[in-house]
Specification:
CATH topology of the largest domain: Rossmann fold
CATH class of the largest domain: Alpha Beta
Mean pLDDT: 94
CATH architecture of the largest domain: 3-Layer(aba) Sandwich
Number of helices: 12
Strand content: 5-15%
Number of strands: 10
Length: 300
Amino acid sequence: MAVGIPKALLYHNYHVLWEHFFNELGVDLAYSKSTDKEILERGKKHSIDEACLSLKIYLGHVDYLMDKVDYILVPRIVSLKKYDKLCTNFYALYDIVNNLFNTKIINYNIDIDNHINEKKAFIRMGKDLGFTRASSVHAYMKAKRIVKRNAKHRFIKQSHLLESPKLKILLAGHPYNLRDKFIGGMVANILKKLDVEIIYSDIYDERESRDKYKSISPRLYWTYNQDIINSILYYQQKVDGIIMITSFPCGPDSLANEMCLRKIDKPIINLIIDELSSEVGLETRIESFIDIIKARLKNG
């Protein structure tokens, strides 16, 4: 049995957990390739025009895996905290894939409002795959320990970058945008050419920053946008500028990012990436932004 992992959307949040959970159970995994024009074109064939770029890319990854695996992992996450929600794409994802593609799906469902947490969801998924509860619990707990260790290592590594004498820019956004070669990858390439130290918003001290978002928007209920704002506020005084990355036309981001643009006291811009965006087009905006920051620092 081979389970396919689309390298898009929630992959960038949970790939370490998935990999070690399935490996511990002895399940073979196959991954789609990194996002490129071919992946995007595959996704566009299955998408409505109004779908965000990140969802179009995800569907392209699913399409790429169709004839290469027995099952495709498609998680469904409704809520990670009581009374808060995720973007509707995440709890519609199973239905979208199930209706668009003729493929078997491995699925787990997290819905805190209905008392289904991550551990319970993974145990159910393990049982659906034919494994005992004990095996599923063991695999999940071991994978979570590795996730925790990995997160600590990444945080320590990024913390060292804050000591760099170079200009430091926080790239703020969803991991599936920051870490995707086609979206955040373009921005990162430009910043590297400008000899800028890149700090990523998906790596920060979550315990120290819990609920900081409430100073920007007390009633913001999109969990992943809360995380982004928490990270921005954590790094605000540690970086020289902030670049927010959004995939067009994300609804939650359009609201949350606008609040950040108005209330964050730090040089900040919002880059909205769509399927026509190119590195050449972004380069001018980013170079101008970096020049403005350097001029401000020079003038005190």
